Amino acid sequence: MATATTSSDVRFKPVARRRVAAPEQGVLTMTSGRLSAGPSCEMDKLIVQIVGKKHSDQQQVLLLGSDGTRIYSPKSEVLERELFSSTLKVWDHIEGTHLHLQIATLEGEPIRLPLLSGTKVTPRQADAQFNQIVPVLPFVALPGSKTVDDMGTPVLARAGYVYVFYQEKLWRELEIHVSETGNTYHDIDVARYRQQSGFLAGERKATGQALEDIWLPALWNNRHVQTLQLCFSEIQLSAARLERLEKDAASRDQRCNSPDLSGSKMRFKDLYKGKPDGKAMLDAFSGFDAKNPVAQALIAPIKATRLNLQYNAFPVSLAAPQRARQPGYERLLDHPARYLCDLSGQFPVESFREAKAFLAQTGRGVAVQDVRRLELTAMADALLASLPIEADAEPVDAGVLWEAQAGVVDVLENARQRQVCGVLLDDACYRLRHLRQRVDTCQQLFALCARHAVLHPHHASALLVQQLVVPRSIRGQENPL
Q1: Is residue 111 within 8 Å of residue 396, measured between CB atoms?
Q2: Is residue 433 part of a domain?
Q3: Is residue 11 part of a domain?
Q4: Residues 6+ apart with CB under 8 A from 234
Q5: Is residue 275 in a domain?
Q6: Which of 198, 312, 345, 436 could be bridged to 243 by S-S, CB 3.0 to 4.6 A?
Q7: What is the pLDDT of residues 301-339, one digit of tens each?
Q8: What is the rounded distance in angstroms from the CA atom of residue 203 to the CA atom of residue 173?
Q9: 245 in a structural domain
Q10: Toxin VasX N-terminal region domain: from which residue to which, for each copy (predicted)?
Q11: Is 80 helix (H, G, I), strand (E, B) or coil?
Q12: How many domains is the chain built from?
C-alpha cells in the first residue's frame, strides 16, 4: 500500500558553491560542467585580429556584401598582453561576403583594396586568430663600414617609397615622409594609374592621409599569406619597372623581401623575449674584433637574433631608441647607427674628441690598440685643423660638423606603446653610397697624412729609405739594398 510522503521526510542536500575563475580579459568563455579558461564557443562568427592597439580609423577592415555595396559593422574587442596586444573585429558570418582594407584620403573617396574573398566561419583562438592583419613600420639594417661582420641594427627607412605586392599584383604604393617626430606613410591610389596594359607613365601622386603604420595581411583561414612581397626604393619606380615586377616572378623575388608577418604571444616570446635587442646589436657589431675568439663566441647569439629580424616581423620594442634619419650626415660616419641611436646629441662631440686624442697619442709615439670606433672623417678634420693653411686654400672650420646636436625624443616612442611591428627591407643604394663616401674619406686622409709627414724634420730621409731600401724589388730586379 502506497504511503504519502510529508515534507518532513524529504531532506534537501545543500548545493556546493563553486569558485569561478574570472576569464582572461577580452575573452568570453562558455562552460560545460567546470568553467574553462580557453576561448569561447561561438557560432558562425568571422574574426579578424589586428595586431597592436590604439589604431586610428585611417585604416579600416570592411566586410562587404556580395554586391560590394552593403557594409557590415563589426564589434571590437581589445586584448591587452605584455608583448602581443591586439584588437579583434568580430562579425556574424554571412556567406558570400568579402574583406577589404579602406584607407582614408585627403580628398575624394577613400582607397579600397581587396583583402579576402569568400570568407569562412572563424573559431575563436586563445592567442593568434585564424585571420590576422599586422601593422608594420619599414626598417632597414644600418651597418658600419669597419668590418664585414657588422650586420647592422634596425633603423627606420629613410625617405622614399614602399611597394607591396599581393597575389602577384602591386597592391599598395606608399611614400615615406621623414620628420623630427618620426615617419609617416602616404598611399598612392594604384588603381587610378592602372590601365589594361600596365600603368600610366609619369608621376603618381600620393593622396592618402598620413599613416603611422602600414596594415598588411599575415594570415587567412589559419594559413600564412605566401604571396605578400615588399621592397623599398629611394625614388618612385617607373611604370615600366612596375609592369616588369608584376609579370616577372623571378625579378620580383630578387627585388623584394617576403617576411613572415604572423605574430602571436608565444611566437614573439620564443623569438625575441630575453634575446639581444637593437642596442645590444649596435654595441656588439660596432665594437667587434674578428681576431678575438671570445668575441666571436659572444656575438653568435646576437647574429642569430639579427637573422630572425631578416625573415620575420618583430616587435618595434626590439629596435634601439633612435632619432630621425639624416642620410647626408650619416654617410660621413663609419658608424652611422651610433649617431642615430644617440638621443643626447653628444655623438659628434665625442667622436671629434676621440679623434684629437688619437692624433695626440700617436704624435707622442704611443700606439693606440683599439681604433674600431674611431671615426675617420673626424680624424681627417682634426688632422686638417692641425696643419698650416696652404697659400691658395680658403680657411675651413673643420670642427663645425662635430658640434653637439639637440637632444631628441625617440621617434619610435608611440609605436612602442602601441605594440606594432617592424619589417626589415633592403636599401642597397644607400649602402653603396655610404661605402663610396668612406673610400673617398680614406683617400683624403692619406693625402692629409702625407702633408703632415712633410712637417717632420726627418721626412726626406724616411722617404728615401721607403723608396730605395724597403722594396724587395725595383723595376723587376731584386733590390740589392
Answers
A1: no
A2: yes
A3: no
A4: 158, 159, 160, 161, 427, 429, 430
A5: no
A6: 198
A7: 999 999 999 999 999 999 999 999 999 999 999 999 999
A8: 12
A9: no
A10: 156-263
A11: coil
A12: 1
